[in-house]
Amino acid sequence: MSLELSRSDLLAIDPLDVVEDVLEAAGWPAERDEEGTLQVVAETRWGDMGALFAHRPEPAAVHFSMTLDVKPQDGKRALINELVILANERLWIGHFDFWADDGVIVFRYTFPLEGREELTEGEVSAVLAASISAADRFIPAFNFLVWAGKSPRDAIDAVMFETHGEA
Q1: Which CDD domains would you find in this protein's record (predicted)?
Q2: For the whole model, what pTM was predicted?
Q3: Is 101 part of a structural domain of the chain?
């Protein structure tokens, strides 16, 4: 009996199983849809956000995205894109995108799986933490731009202000 895994054996391993384990341990509600995509409810300071994990064998990767509960208005595409760039300059893990066709702002990260069959729990936990941190910090900036009419620079400056200590 051989202990070596063939390429077809590797494709039988579902990398989303590790994601489900991490989500379950963290108490995050999740379920798989008919296409095998893992739908997640991500709890942030600003409310629940819809998120998903999807596995694709070619290229071998697991995609994560979380849709921010921000409703961009028509005509603000250039300003939103500018704010996305400013926010992304401040992120170490993942990035924001504005999907104009869908009218949504998302936080995204893709885990490459080339040469391996599954993710580690640490990777999944780190990306989940980064997504929540990014949403908590930058949703107000997107709302300042969309609803308060602030410029991208003013919106980002407002959320980057940090206080030290307590009053």
Answers
A1: DR1245-like
A2: 0.85
A3: yes
From CA 46, how far away is CA 44, in angstroms rounded?
5
The CATH number linked to 98 is: 3.30.1460.10
User: Structurally, how many domains does the chain consist of?
Assistant: 1
pLDDT at 105: 96
Say if residues 121 and 21 touch (Cβ distance below 8 Å).
Answer: yes
Distance CA 30, CA 23 (A): 7
In a domain? residue 2:
no
Give per-residue pLDDT as tens, 101-152.
Answer: 899 999 999 999 998 888 999 999 999 999 999 999 999 999 999 999 999 9
In degrees rounded to 5, what are phi and psi of residue 122? -60, -40
Parent domain of 21? 7-160
Place of tokens 């400056």: 157
